[in-house]
Amino acid sequence: DLVSEAEELDRIEARLRGINGFAPIQRCAHSDVSVGSVLGINGFDLQRALKASPTLLDARGGETKHDASVTSVSIDQGAARHMRTVQQGALDL
User: Fold this and answer.
1) pTM higher than 0.85 for the full model?
2) How far is CA 74 from CA 6, 79, 86, in A?
3) Which of 23, 29, 32, 87 has its CA 20 to 30 A from that of 62?
4) What is the distance between the alpha carbons of residues 82 and 88, in angstroms, rounded to a whole number?
């Protein structure tokens, strides 16, 4: 819903694939995706991450660089009250 041109969508998707080529991309309007399509998908695989970056767990490695424009949210799925809030759409992520 924030991008109207097909070329711009393709450019953004290519950038996302460059960050994580394994992550599924869902085109949507107004973030309208099912909770089940983004939670509990077991998207992180340590063995795959180590193949892509063999020094990932090396504590002696150089300083880590972080892109300040990339953020994340985590939800404790064991907390039923919070899951109800998400499922009802009352949590603005």
Assistant:
1) no
2) 31, 12, 12
3) 23
4) 10
SS3 for 89?
Answer: coil
Q: Are 81 and 88 in contact (CB under 8 A)?
A: no
Q: Identify the residue whose tokens are 């711009």.
A: 8
pLDDT tens for 33-84 read 888 888 878 788 889 888 888 888 887 877 777 888 888 877 666 666 666 7
d(CA 13, CA 26): 10
CA dist 93 and 26 (Å) reads 16
Distance CA 69, CA 64 (A): 15
